[in-house]
Every structure is written in structure tokens, then in C-alpha cells.
Amino acid sequence: MSNPAQFPARAQTPAFDPTQVLVLIAEDETEIAEILAAYLARSGMRTVHAADGEQALQLHKTLKPDLVLLDVQMPRLDGWQVLAEIRHQAATPVIMLTAMDQDIDKLMGLRIGADDYVVKPFNPAEVVARSQAVLRRVLASGAQEQSRVLRVAGLEIDLDQHEVIVRSDASAKKLLLTLTEFKLLVTLARAPKKVFSRMELLTSCLPEGDTLERTVDSHISKLRKKLEDAELSGVPAVVRGVGYKLLVSA
Known about the structure:
Number of strands: 12
Helix content: 25-40%
Strand content: 15-25%
Number of domains: 2
């Protein structure tokens, strides 16, 4: 999701990686939201909760989730209004959650742009299965207007907006990176456990004309200092005699 698939001449379905998925649960009943969050977490997905329609739209705008589980009956803005506004902004997959099971309600949701429809009371495991199915379908078809956000090691890297945010439980700090620093970070984040040689990074990330491998060290040093200032230490990691990788652990 956050790392978009690139298809060769004979297309292959990209692997679905739940750990790269962020699900926005828009549900005013706290107990239901907590149950869904727990089940989604078991499958490896991360979640964020909105208790009303206005908060749902704000979180959708700022966090760019990969999937929205959207309750119809919510305060401030109902699910239909939220869905319509989301569809004005992006093609984020949306699964409607509602106690209404009339065909006209299902048709309304599909007409506005819902990807699926689950009627309450539901089995949380079924919601997880449907979420995975929708995400796989979107990934395989390329139908989603990709937000293209990489999330790894406390970093949130927006490839379209060229923005990097360091997130923790207590804060979210935006980094001001040069184009070269951004390219280096993206390259490392796409394969966070891979060790990249200086020559690989030089070739893929630095402007033409930069031919010295030690130039990579200079840019990496500046990038690491900015990450440390945002309270993310040890990133990128140095592998002596080889190069750099994003994650310290193997």
C-alpha cells in the first residue's frame, strides 16, 4: 500500500503486507471500536479511532489511512456525508458499518462509493476478513488513488507530498529534508532491513555529477542529525565496511 507495486510485462499480484496498513475506524460506540481495533491488531494492522464524522474527515485528511471502517449513524456528520466527502478527496477504500440492512441503504452506500457493506451485529473476524479482501483487491487492481505513504520505524513518508513525519505516542514532528536526504530516506525505507552500499545510494539518490562515495556519508550524517533532533536515534544504521540500512535489527 505505502510501497506501490510496479508491474512487469506479465503482471503479478503484489504481496499484501498488513503491517503497512493503517485503518481508520469511524465509530461512535467505543466498545465496538475497541473490539474492531483489537481484531485488526491481531492481524497485524494498525488503527486509529474517530468518534464522530468531523473527526473522521480530519483524521482521513491528516493520516491518509489505507482503509476506512465507517459507521453510518454518527454524530456531527453521518456516514453518508463522510463517505461523500472522502470520495471528493481520494479513492480510499471504505467499508460501511451499519445496523440498517435495507437494500436501498446498501445501494446508497455503493452509489456514493462504498467498497463493501457490513450489517450490525457482525462478527469482528468477518470485518477483518472483508478488510483484507478489499485491500488485496485494491492492491491487485491498482484502482486506489494511492496516497503512497511509507510507514516504518516510527517514520511516515508521504511520497506524493515529499513530507516526512516522525511519530511517537506523544508527538508528531515534521522533518525539513533536502531532496537528496529525502531520496536517501525513501530508498532505505522501501527495504528497511537491506544493507545498501554507498555506491548503490550514490547511483540512485544523488544528483549527476556527485561521484564520490564519501558524499553519501555527508548526506547520511545530516539526515541522521535531523532524525535525532526529532527523537529518532540510530537511524539510518551503519554497517561497517558495507554501507547503511534503515533498521538496526536484522
